[in-house]
Design brief:
- Helix 1 packs across helix 5 and helix 7 packs antiparallel against helix 8.
- The chain folds into two domains: 88 residues, Winged helix-like DNA-binding domain superfamily/Winged helix DNA-binding domain (Arc Repressor Mutant, subunit A, Orthogonal Bundle), CATH 1.10.10; 87 residues, Helix Hairpins (Orthogonal Bundle).
- With 208 residues, it is mainly alpha-helical.
- It starts with a helix and ends in an 11-residue tail after the last helix.
């Protein structure tokens, strides 16, 4: 996740020093999750050694040995790696909800078709969780009659209430994903119509 955030920030800002990268990442993942200097700077060094980022000459005079003021920029290899990470939907499936949220920061950097594919995958991801929790809740109802536990009725009721809460959370997530898709389809149609009216012109626009 941190690799994606670092490369994404350098895709957007072109150049950034370590302190700015750390601040943006912590603002994104906070308030309780924080990336420490002890974790960030070894990762920046690793990305630099891998050829994904490089020191910007503009930062050398300011750095004076202070790693927080070293200015970095993304390389062509880094851009390719960024797009690989954005397209990846199979790694870390258990953490993909959080990862998709991080990816949403950089949706403007994806072509429309790739973005719609990514959103469609997440819609299916949400639907899978809803189906799973719904099935589990129904299973609890059927199996719980045979459970020999203390305070049976209240225990089962609390379990079902928790399952319902989880289902509702995923339904909210699903509604959000569907709204992202609807906005992107609308934006793509508007841009397509505009290009038909003004052929040959280059149109640059931000997604809503």
């Amino acid at each position: 996740m941190y690799e994606l955030l670092i490369l994404g920030q350098l895709m957007m800002h072109k150049r950034a020093h370590g302190y700015l990268i750390a601040r943006i990442i912590n603002d994104s993942i906070g308030p309780y999750a924080r990336v420490s200097n002890g974790r960030l700077y070894p990762l920046l060094t690793k990305l630099e050694q891998s050829g994904l980022i490089e020191r910007s000459p503009e930062g050398d005079s300011r750095a004076q040995g202070d790693r927080q003021l070293r200015v970095y920029r993304i390389t062509e290899s880094g851009k390719q790696r960024f797009y690989e990470l954005m397209r990846d939907t199979s790694s870390n499936p258990g953490e993909y909800q959080k990862l998709f949220l991080m990816k949403s920061f950089y949706f403007d950097l994806l072509p429309p078709l790739e973005l719609l594919t990514l959103i469609d995958h997440y819609i299916h991801y949400c639907q899978t969780h809803i189906l799973h929790h719904t099935t589990e809740a129904e299973d609890i109802v059927h199996r719980s009659s045979h459970w020999d536990i203390v305070d049976h009725e209240n225990v089962v009721a609390r379990m079902l209430a928790t399952m319902e809460h989880m289902i509702n959370q995923w339904k909210l997530e699903l509604d959000w994903a569907k709204s992202l898709k609807a906005k992107e389809i609308t934006r793509s149609h508007i841009q397509s119509d505009d290009e038909k009216q003004h052929p040959g012109e280059k149109h640059v626009g931000k997604r809503a």
